[in-house]
Design goal:
Layout lengths: L14 H26 L13 H8 L8 E3 L5 H6 L4 H9 L33 H17 L14 E6 L6 H12 L4 E7 L2 E2 L2 E2 L19 E6 L3 H16 L5 E6 L18 H8 L3 H11 L5 H24 L16
The structure holds thiamine diphosphate and magnesium ion.
Length: about 350
C-alpha cells in the first residue's frame, strides 16, 4: 500500500519541533562525517554509517513516545538513537572503544546501540535477530495490558515496540518469524525497513522478487506501507498513523522507508565495485537534510543565521566529544568478562 497524503499529522508539528528534528538530522550527519575522518586518520577501527537515512529515522523517532516506548534499532540508526538521548560524547566513546562506553562497556563493536534507561533494546550483529525479540517485547506489553497489570492508556508506560532493519535483512528467517508472530497476535509493533537498495554489494532485486518490502506484510496479516524515506515529514506521517494503530490495539505495521546510503556499506567496503558514481551523485541530490532545510527555509522556519548557529554548535559538540573520548582511559582488563556470563 502506498502512503496516502490525505491526512497529514505532520501539519500539526510546531515550528520548534520541526527545528528539533532538523537539528538532530544535522548533528547526526556531522557526527557521522567525523567518524569517517577519524577512521581514515587511523584513529578508530570501524565505522558504519547512517548517512542518507536521517530522514527515515527522525521521522520515526518523533512519532513514538521517545524514552518510553521500546526501540530495537540496527547499526545505521545513529540519528534515531541521538533522538532517544544518546549524545555525541557517548557515540565517540563507542568509536574509540573507551571506558564508559554506554552500550557494552566497550566490548561490542560501535553502533550496536543499547541503553536500558532509554528503553533501547540490545541488538546483536547477526542481522534481523532483533525482530523476533522485538515481537516478543511487544507480546509482553500486550500481555501485561490484558492481564490488567498495566493501563493501556497510561502513556508513562511503554505501549509499543519500534524495530528497524535494512531491506536485505528481510530475507533472513528471523524477520519472517517475527513478522508472523506480530501478525498472529496483533501486537503493538512497528517494523521500520530502511530500504537503501543494497545489502552491502547485493542490490534489492538480488534479495527479493518483489519491488516493495511493504508488499510482504500482507502475508503476515500486517499492514504494509511504503514511503519516501528522504522526506522526513512523510515518514513522520505514516509512522504517526502506525503508532496510533499500535496504541489503540489495531495491530502491527510494516513501514518501508525508501532511501539510499551515499557512502560505502562500512568503513571497510569499497562501493565503486558494485555501483556507478552517477547513481550515487543522483541520490545525493535527493539528500533528506538538504531537502528538509530547503522546506524549512521556504516556510520561514529556518533562517541562515540559525543554520550557521546549528553548524557551529554541532562542530563544537563533536570536537568536545572527540577530545573527551581520545583522552578517556581504556576499559579495565578486569572488566572484560563482567556481565557476559551469569554465575
Ligand atoms: C545473519 C547475517 N548474515 C550476514 C551478515 C553480514 N552483514 C552485515 S550487514 C549486511 C547487509 C545488510 O543489508 P541491509 O539489510 O539491506 O541493511 P543495510 O546495511 O543496507 O542498511 C550483511 C550481509 C550479518 N551481520 N548477519
Ligand atoms: Mg540495505
Amino acid at each position: 500500500m502506498v502512503a496516502t497524503t490525505m491526512t497529514r499529522p505532520s501539519s500539526r508539528l510546531k515550528p520548534d519541533t520541526l527545528l528539533d528534528m532538523f537539528w538532530l538530522m544535522l548533528l547526526s550527519r556531522r557526527l557521522d562525517e567525523r567518524a569517517w575522518v577519524l577512521h581514515r586518520q587511523g584513529k578508530i577501527a570501524f565505522h558504519i554509517s547512517g548517512m542518507g537515512h536521517e530522514g527515515a529515522q527522525i521521522g520515526a523517532a518523533f512519532a513514538i513516545k521517545r524514552g518510553v516506548d521500546y526501540v530495537h534499532p540496527y547499526y545505521r540508526d545513529l540519528a534515531l538513537v541521538l533522538a532517544l538521548s544518546i549524545t555525541p560524547a557517548d557515540f565517540m566513546l563507542s568509536l574509540f572503544g573507551k571506558k564508559g562506553e554506554f552500550s557494552s562497556k566497550a566490548r561490542q563493536m560501535p553502533s550496536h546501540f543499547s541503553a536500558k534507561q532509554f528503553n533501547i533494546l540490545s541488538g546483536s550483529s547477526p542481522v534481523a535477530t532483533q525482530v523476533p525479540q522485538a515481537a516478543g517485547v511487544a507480546f509482553a506489553i500486550k500481555y501485561k495490558q490484558q492481564m490488567g497489570l498495566v493501563d493501556p492508556n497510561d502513556d508513562t508506560q511503554p505501549r509499543l515496540v519500534l524495530t528497524s532493519l535494512g531491506e536485505g535483512s528481510t530475507s533472513q528467517g528471523e524477520w519472517h518469524e517475527g513478522m508472523n508472530w506480530a501478525g498472529v497476535h496483533k501486537l503493538p509493533f512497528i517494523c521500520l525497513v530502511e530500504n537503501n537498495l543494497y545489502a552491502i554489494s547485493v542490490p534489492q532485486e538480488g534479495q527479493m522478487a518483489v519491488s516493495n518490502v511493504a508488499d510482504r506484510a500482507a502475508a503476515y496479516g500486517v499492514r504494509g506501507v511504503w514511503v519516501d524515506g528522504n522526506d522526513v515529514l512523510a515518514v513522520y506521517d505514516v509512522l504517526a498513523e502506525a503508532v496510533q494503530r499500535a496504541y489503540s490495539g489495531g495491530g502491527p505495521t510494516l513501514v518501508e522507508a525508501k532511501t539510499y546510503r551515499p557512502v560505502p556499506h562500512s568503513s571497510d567496503d569499497d562501493d565503486r565495485s558494485y555501483r556507478s558514481r552517477e547513481e550515487v551523485e543522483e541520490w545525493k541530490r535527493k539528500d533528506p537534510i538538504l531537502r528538509f532545510q530547503k522546506h524549512l527555509m521556504e516556510e520561514g522556519i529556518l533562517s541562515q543565521a540559525q543554520l550557521d548557529e546549528y553548524e557551529a554548535r554541532a562542530r563544537a559538540m563533536i570536537d568536545e566529544a572527540q577530545h573527551a573520548a581520545e583522552a578517556a582511559p581504556e576499559p579495565d582488563e578486569a572488566d572484560a568478562l563482567s556481565d557476559v556470563y551469569a554465575v
